[in-house]
Design brief:
By secondary structure, the protein is an alpha/beta fold. Helix content is about 30%, strand content about 25%. The chain binds 5'-O-[hydroxy(phenylacetyl)phosphoryl]adenosine.
């Protein structure tokens, strides 16, 4: 099933025409409404009228996370605040988070994109869609919500957490489609088993899982345990939220909704665009966003683009499952975390040395985060009681800043390896499993 056949199966030549028209309008919009974009374009000696064909996109400067942080909170909005009817935010590195704004038309387009995504699972007006992505500033909950309403499904807006209750609702309401992070889906599957509930009691058919990296092995596990079709969905707040790309039932790459976004793959070192089939950093330009358009936004996500036609009939290019990141961001239980956030907490508290390591692991289906922090000789010579207080203090601060539980472990002076180049701040043991 295809939600918007004319646009999702549009012949590529026609699609390119639509993209060019929309690209010109977007460039014009940011140039005239957003001083920061105009300044960068002027410095690069490029003006809106220079965009004559799609290849001219390459003349435009990249937009980085730093540009977004520097303009906190609303500096890159390209519509007047009276037209912005929603904001969302994602965690930044240190200090400011990244804030994005949506006009009414943006929300309308977003619902359309999620409608396409959900339709990929076979969902429709008869479906019961349980949304277990977090609601709030995170784009997962509310983003999926409006798309589920758009297809006319019965929406269960439960948000994340309270797993036993989630499972009871799933059973009582006859949930067909589950929307959550893949790790949370696995946790639910384990909890069902622990509760002694057999799969026959549920009407689950499919899941739309994303917001964090996951593997084919994890897909097999989820499909086997829950007896569902598990679909990978991708997106990021800066571009729109979920609804940037979605797998179709063929499950061979995620179709990028190219009538709304132009993807590029670049070499992260040379910043040169790479051809189809080559692995590199994903870069997106939005084509229809009014509130928060982005031009050549560097995602730091690593993938590959494929242009070969897909048996499903959609003509939009596909991206490979995300293979990692070019920066040190880790995603723990769906929350994006940068080591620099931990560093700022430690430096602010000043109770320990600024040598630290994030150790990420998975116990059962749940991600765990341990933060190892070196103490000085002086602190070490103090009483054990004091050490515990220090641990708790750091733990509390980290939890309130990061929004996830972290276990703090104080370690001996000089026990964390010093680096001669880039410091290794994260050990991710999940990947070894
Ligand atoms: O995670 C939006 C989203 C919500 C996507 C629900 C899918 C489902 P952010 O919090 O801004 O937005 O985090 C974006 O998460 O740059 C990737 O590194 C990672 N990510 C998102 N989806 C996937 C996926 C949402 N399917 C960051 N596979 C992105 C791998 C993903 N990584």
């Amino acid at each position: 099933m295809i939600w918007n056949r004319p646009l999702e199966t549009m012949p590529r030549e026609e699609l390119a025409g639509l993209q060019l028209e929309r690209l010109k309008a977007t460039v014009d919009r940011v140039y005239h409404n957003v001083p920061a974009y105009r300044e960068k374009m002027q410095a690069a000696r490029v003006a809106p009228l220079d965009i004559k064909n799609l290849a001219d996109l390459r003349r435009l400067p990249f937009t980085t996370k730093q540009d977004l942080r520097d303009s906190y909170p609303f500096g890159l909005f390209a519509a007047p605040m009276r037209d912005i009817i929603r904001v969302h935010a994602s965690s930044g590195t240190t200090g400011n988070s990244i804030v994005v704004g949506y006009t009414r038309r943006d929300l309308d387009n977003w619902a359309e994109l999620i409608a396409r995504t959900l339709t990929c699972t076979g969902a429709g007006a008869d479906s019961v869609v349980q949304i277990s992505y977090g609601y709030g500033l995170f784009t997962g909950g509310l983003g999926v919500h409006y798309g589920a309403e758009r297809i006319g499904a019965t929406v269960v807006p439960v948000s994340s957490g309270n797993t036993k209750r989630q499972i009871k609702l799933m059973q009582d309401f006859g949930t067909n489609i589950l929307a959550c992070t893949p790790s949370y889906a696995l946790y639910m599957a384990e909890t069902m088993q622990e509760m002694g509930l057999s799969r026959d009691l549920f009407k689950l058919k499919a899941g739309v899982f994303g917001a964090e990296p996951w593997t084919e092995e994890m897909r097999r596990e989820l499909e086997f345990r829950l007896q569902i079709l598990a679909i990978d969905i991708y997106g990021l707040s800066e571009v729109i939220g979920p609804g940037v790309a979605s797998e179709c039932p063929v499950k061979n790459g995620l179709h990028i909704f190219e009538d709304h976004f132009i993807p590029e793959i670049i070499d992260p070192e040379t910043e040169q665009p790479l051809p189809f089939g080559e692995k590199g950093e994903l870069v997106f330009t939005t084509l229809t966003k009014e509130g928060f358009p982005v031009i050549r936004y560097r995602t730091h996500d690593i993938s590959v683009l494929y242009e070969e036609p897909c048996p499903c009939g959609r003509t939009h290019v596909r991206m490979a499952k995300i293979a990692g990141r070019t920066d040190d961001m880790v995603i723990i239980r769906g929350v994006n975390i940068f080591p620099s956030q931990v560093e700022s907490v430690l430096l602010n508290l000043g109770l320990t040395e600024p040598h630290y390591l994030l150790v990420v692991d998975r116990q059962g289906a749940l991600d765990t985060l341990e933060v190892w922090v070196e103490v000085s000789e002086k602190v070490l010579s103090d009483k054990i009681k004091h050490l515990e207080t220090v641990e708790h203090r750091i733990q509390r601060e980290l939890e309130s800043l990061l929004g996830v539980t972290a276990r703090v472990r104080l370690v001996e002076p000089k026990s964390i390896e010093r680096s001669e180049g880039k410091a290794k701040r994260v050990i991710d043991r999940r990947k070894l499993k």
